[in-house]
Amino acid sequence: MKDINKMELLISKFLRLGVIISGLIILSGWLMSFEADKNPFISLQSYQHFSLINSLEMNFILNNWGKVISYLGLMILISLPVLRVFLSTILFIRQKEKMMAFLGTVVFIGLILSFFMGIEGK
């Protein structure tokens, strides 16, 4: 039981650190975007639909590293709950809680599938 509590505390600290790091990455990307553009809000005046892949490709080509770094921070932030479900499932397996391990696995698979279903094709 003591080992389980230690593992839960470790997961909690890891996630807290992940949120802080991803927030700092997003902030640094935003600051880089403000520095690169005289008016960083000019691109928000009209809506243009781009898929994530197209947007990343365009920002790489234009060397807009601020937006690329912001996307990286956002991807890290989005992946943290998925990582939490995965680590909790591992913890349930170690505790031999079969039903919770099964449910954690189902939730994890559902999260992964939702990411793939949300990716737009070209």
What does this structure look like?
The protein has 4 helices and no strands. With about 120 residues, it is an all-alpha fold. Helix 1 runs antiparallel to helix 3 (about 65-95). It has helices at about 1-35, 50-60, 65-95, 100-120.
Topology:
Layout (H helix, E strand, L loop, with lengths): L1 H35 L15 H10 L3 H31 L2 H21 L4
**Count of individual helical segments:** 4
Major beta sheet summary = none
Strand content: under 5%
Mean pLDDT: 85
Helix content: over 70%
Radius of gyration: 19 Å
- What separation lies between the terminal Cα atoms? 50 Å
- Overall shape: it is elongated
Please outline what is shown here:
The protein is built from 4 helices and no strands. The protein is an all-alpha fold. It is elongated, with a radius of gyration of 19 Å.
Features:
single chain; 122 residues; mainly alpha; elongated; 80% helix
